[in-house]
Design goal:
Blueprint lengths: L2 H4 L6 H7 L2 E6 L9 E3 L5 E10 L8 E6 L8 E4 L8 E5 L4 E8 L2 E8 H8 L6 H12 L1
Antiparallel strand pairs: 1-3, 2-3, 3-6, 4-5, 4-7, 7-8
């Protein structure tokens, strides 16, 4: 299947053509394969999530900024220049938030917004682990 058929993120034309990237995210999991989280007094689970930009043009990308569009986030910005590891960055959240991803290529910025739940669906595509599926449902509900 092609990326367009399996990727729920509607990429902008510029991002699709210049970055050729795919945004993904994966829960950090424990030894049993369940997502790691800390539960707050309100019962919300705050998950640790790895975010990535996969691109065949990774060597041309100078760096990637991840901005969490969430006024409750203590540290909404993350940055990675690690092309060898798909511009990996770590975030923490309890809910579905927009993530603005900016790829810097030759001093030009290419921006793409995506819902975290869509990035998680990309990263856990084909997942059958009930704990992962439940965590994605929880993220979408918050």
């Amino acid at each position: 299947m092609s990326q367009a058929q399996t990727d729920p993120i509607p990429y902008t034309k510029a991002f699709r053509e210049k970055v050729q990237g795919r945004l993904t995210a994966r829960f950090r999991v424990d030894a049993a394969g369940a997502p790691e989280f800390e539960e707050d007094p309100d019962g919300l689970r705050h998950y640790t999530i790895d975010v990535y930009l996969e691109s065949p043009l990774a060597d041309d990308i100078d760096g990637v900024e991840y901005l969490l569009i969430d006024n409750t986030s203590v540290d909404p910005r993350g940055y990675s220049a690690d092309a060898d590891n798909n511009f990996h960055e770590v975030i923490e959240t309890y809910g579905d938030i927009p993530v603005e991803v900016t790829a810097d290529i030759d001093s030009r910025e290419y921006k793409q917004r995506a819902w975290l739940s869509n990035m998680l669906e990309n990263g856990h595509s084909g997942e059958t682990n009930p704990a992962i599926l439940d965590a994605i449902r929880r993220i979408k509900a918050n």
